Amino acid sequence: MFERMSCDQFERQAATGRRVAVFRHVVADLLTPVAAFGALNQPGASAFLLESSDGARDVGRYSFLGFEPSLRVVSLGRRAELWSGAERLDADADVLVVLRRVLARQQVAPGPELPPLVGGAVGTLAYDAVRLWERLPDRHAGEVALPEVEFSFFDTVVAFDHLRHTATISHVVEPGARPREAFGRAMEKVDQIAALLAATSPQPFAAEGCAAAEVETDLDDATYERLVRRAKEYILAGDIFQVVLSRCF
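The structure corresponding to this sequence follows.
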């Protein structure tokens, strides 16, 4: 189980014409996803930690960590920007067109050794993104400008398997014209991550709790409570059956 991908495996998968996930399995009995995230994430860098659950009480089988996205798609409204690190590659393009174009290049050759997620898009769609598909009025123009679509495309993922108590480190690459060189560079990166994880020891309990943070919102409590009461009145009158009230903070 605790093997790594061989160069021969890589070349066979590269022949499919798709991107290939170079992987290595490691034992993760004493390592938690949160500790790994703290060890691998760089301050200010884009990263993600996805946990899952099979029900109200059961922990899901996998936890996924991703680092160093190769691309980022951000849009306010329909117009999108495509970024690679600090370099803007494209601007003022239709966000759905950009997403389809980028996703079409993200196909990874399948393999039985791989977890469900080895790379790809992770991000958010705001409620207002519905206007990309439906014609709806915008009564909040000029308020806090938050991205309606923001997806980062990750090539490096660590997948914790809580059933087998293992972690799979994967790095997705384009084989290119020199697949053996591409494999060597990718495996070197995978081994670097494995070394960082091996050096990560369990953290002791914090001596004190977290300090309370000051939070500012766009609506004060009285205004928000008034909106809740109005929503209840609309529901009782039969004008609406559902409403989503929220505050930016």
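Residues 7-198 form a domain with the Anthranilate synthase fold (CATH 3.60.120.10).
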